[in-house]
Amino acid sequence: MEEFHKVRRLPPYVFEQVNRLKATARAGGADIIDLGMGNPDLPTPQAIVDKLCEAVRDPRTHRYSTSRGIPGLRRAQAAYYERRFGVKLDPNTEVIATLGSKEGFANMAQAITAPGDVILCPNPTYPIHAFGFIMSGGVIRSLDVVPDASFFAPLERSVKHSIPKPIALILNYPSNPTSYVASYEFYKDVIAFAKKHDLIVLSDLAYSEIYFDGTPPPSVLQVPGAKDICVEFTSMSKTFSMPGWRMGFAVGNERLISALTRVKSYLDYGAFTPIQVAATAALNGDGSDIAEVRSIYKKRRDVLVDSFGKAGWDVPPPPATMFAWAPIPPQFRDMGSLEFSKLLIEKADVAVAPGIGFGEQGDYHVRIALVENEHRIRQAARSIKKFLATTGTGDAANVVSLSARR
Ligand SMILES: Cc1ncc(COP(=O)(O)O)c(C=O)c1O
Question: Where is the Aminotransferase class I/classII large domain (predicted)?
Answer without folding.
Answer: 31-384
